[in-house]
Design brief:
Flagellar protein FlgN; 158 residues; FlgN-like; elongated; cilium; single chain; Methane Monooxygenase Hydroxylase, Chain G, domain 1; cell projection; mainly alpha
């Protein structure tokens, strides 16, 4: 039983490492502003997320059988129950998971910041493209309140 659990955890760990590589690629693409490649990378990333979800479901089942319960199915609980030889393997997997999860968290935060900055840049660009309302002395109001309509360079009736 422990061998199957360890094999599953190793596969799950490998998938997380691959997910980290994809997240790192996303960072480069965000910096380069390569939208088409970013779309492809997001689709590729989604496949890893689906595979991780499937492996996680299998991990939960194996962990439940190994621990003999349905709650608190953690790697720490497995380490506590395992015998000496498996305990070391599980501890190494735990340490590696902790490292890759921290790395994923950091790179995803960076990607979030880069995405927000890109959106701010787009917003600023759109705002600068909009014609500014001028303070003309002899402008006729367009509506009953005496306010002028703001004109846009985009045709909203199209």
């Amino acid at each position: 039983m422990t061998e199957k659990l360890i094999a599953n955890l190793e596969k799950l760990l490998a998938l997380h490492h691959q997910l980290y590589k994809v997240a790192f690629q996303k960072t480069d693409l965000l910096k380069k502003n390569d939208i088409e490649a970013l779309k492809e990378t997001l689709n590729y990333e989604q496949k890893f997320v689906q595979a991780i979800n499937q492996m996680e479901a299998e991990r939960i089942e194996l962990t439940s059988k190994f621990l003999g319960r349905t709650d608190e199915l953690t790697l720490t609980a497995c380490i506590e129950k395992a015998d000496a030889s498996d305990k070391e393997k599980l501890q190494n997997i735990y340490d590696e998971f902790k490292k890759v999860m921290d790395d994923l968290k950091n790179i995803n935060n960076l990607n979030k910041q880069l995405t927000q900055q890109a959106l701010q840049l787009v917003s600023i660009t759109i705002n600068t493209m909009m014609p500014q309302e001028g303070d003309h002395n002899y402008q006729k109001p367009d509506n009953k309140n005496g306010q002028t309509k703001r004109r846009s360079i985009f045709d909203s009736k199209a």
